[in-house]
Task: inverse folding
């Protein structure tokens, strides 16, 4: 698990089974994303720059290559090959003290972490200028509207809780997990 900034990406060749007649495949081809590693949270040490293969319904559109905002990502590695399991990444936000944190709108945001991560959710103060954290009321669903981790302000939901990266590092230093354990089945 790392904190990294996506620099650029490209499409790979489409999976062969997706090119057959009578097959409807709604995803674009797999992608390779080049990341600059900012911080190592858990797992084996990685080089400062890595290429990660992944898939996703929105393809390269779901990556922000211009703002250079950090994300937390889970990758599986074998020698120099790195795979980002589908959707195992989240944008990070700056706190007023300058630290980074995972903004939490509701518990299921952390679905790809071990279940015990919920103990790390705490009230946080995000930088006010980070309006990108706002979710318009009309774009929310009941779990966010009923969540104890958000506040409604001016027609937008803002996170009031999250997991600081410093807490996440401590959490993983004291709790050892295998790659297959990175999923919470008990939400």
Result:
């Amino acid at each position: 698990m790392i904190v990294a900034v996506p620099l650029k990406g490209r499409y790979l060749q489409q999976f062969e089974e997706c090119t057959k007649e009578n097959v409807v495949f709604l995803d674009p081809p797999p992608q390779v994303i080049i990341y600059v590693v900012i911080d190592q949270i858990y797992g084996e040490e990685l080089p400062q720059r890595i290429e990660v293969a992944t898939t996703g319904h929105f393809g390269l559109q779901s990556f922000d290559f211009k703002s250079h905002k950090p994300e937390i990502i889970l990758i599986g590695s074998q020698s120099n090959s790195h795979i980002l399991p589908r959707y195992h990444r989240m944008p990070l936000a700056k706190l007023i003290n300058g630290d980074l944190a995972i903004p939490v709108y509701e518990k299921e945001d952390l679905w790809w972490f071990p279940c015990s991560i919920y103990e790390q959710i705490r009230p946080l103060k995000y930088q006010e200028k980070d309006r990108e954290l706002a979710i318009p009321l009309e774009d929310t669903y009941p779990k966010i509207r009923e969540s104890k981790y958000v506040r409604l302000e001016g027609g937008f939901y803002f996170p009031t809780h999250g997991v600081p990266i410093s807490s996440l590092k401590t959490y993983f230093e004291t709790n050892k997990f295998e790659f297959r354990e990175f999923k919470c089945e008990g939400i």
Helices lie at 142-145, 165-174. The chain has a mean pLDDT of 90. The radius of gyration is 17 Å.
